[in-house]
Design a protein that fits this description.
Layout: H1 3-28, E1 43-47, E2 57-62, E3 65-70, E4 74-78, E5 82-83, E6 87-95, E7 104-112, E8 120-127, E9 131-138, E10 141-150, E11 163-171, E12 176-181, E13 184-190, H2 191-194, E14 199-205, E15 210-220
Antiparallel strand pairs: 1-4, 2-3, 3-15, 4-14, 5-14, 6-11, 6-15, 7-8, 7-14, 8-9, 9-10, 11-12, 12-13
């Protein structure tokens, strides 16, 4: 076989391998069927997969916080939580049971056009194995800013799958955005790299999770 043909075949195999692995993972861990409920007043939601409606996940008010049972991975936002200028934000997440493999939850910010094709936001997540992640979404494109990184600050899930983590975003300074897990800074994003922090601040819960969210707040800098 000519070398060029071999090189082309090798490239096709390299591209197909991760796609096949992704499809295999989805086949073995499909989105669970969840009986949905109307979103709390003033809240909106969107699933990652356009073929799934937000009613395939459940986001409700519970006590003084919220409770999410998913279903497909989704984001949630409200006009009540929109930043303009320097701000800080935080929320406490309690994973209540084990997913079939580590799945993530956390905060999004810089949210714009979240209900349209031009959606954009940055998100900061943590998962039950004690790792955190930062990504940026623009439309259907997702760009990795910080890949899954282990941090001693993140609480790992116990044998029952229970873990509680407080995630915080400090966007009060122009030089950087400081990201914290349980009060400990785990990373700082350069302000010049991130750009304006104006936009919706919301919540993200990946698929097949049961998570209680409390103390979600956004505080403008005085």
């Amino acid at each position: 076989m000519p070398r060029q043909a071999i090189a082309t075949l090798s490239l096709l195999i390299a591209v197909a391998a991760p796609l096949a692995a992704q499809k295999s993972a989805m086949k073995h861990d499909p989105d669970k069927k969840v009986v949905g409920a109307p979103l709390p007043a003033g809240w909106m939601g969107r699933t990652d997969d356009p073929e799934h409606r937000i009613s395939a996940a459940k986001f409700i008010t519970m006590g003084t916080g919220f409770h999410v049972t998913s279903g497909p991975a989704a984001i949630y936002w409200s006009d009540k939580y929109r930043a303009k200028g320097p701000f800080s934000a935080s929320a406490t997440f309690q994973q209540t049971r084990n997913p079939s493999h580590p799945e993530a939850y956390g905060i999004l910010w810089q949210g714009e056009k979240l209900d349209g094709a031009g959606q954009s936001y940055v998100y900061f997540l943590v998962r039950g194995d004690g790792k955190f992640l930062v990504n940026r979404r623009a439309g259907s494109d997702v760009r990795k800013i910080i890949g899954w990184t282990e941090s001693a600050a993140a609480h790992k899930a116990d044998a029952k799958g229970v873990a509680t983590n407080t995630l915080s975003i400090d966007a009060t300074r122009p030089d950087s955005i400081r990201l914290k897990v349980n009060g400990v800074q785990v990373h700082a994003l350069e302000g010049a790299h991130v750009g304006s922090t104006d936009g919706f601040v919301g919540l993200r819960v990946n698929h097949n999770l049961d998570v209680h969210i409390s103390d979600f707040a956004i505080t403008p800098k005085k």
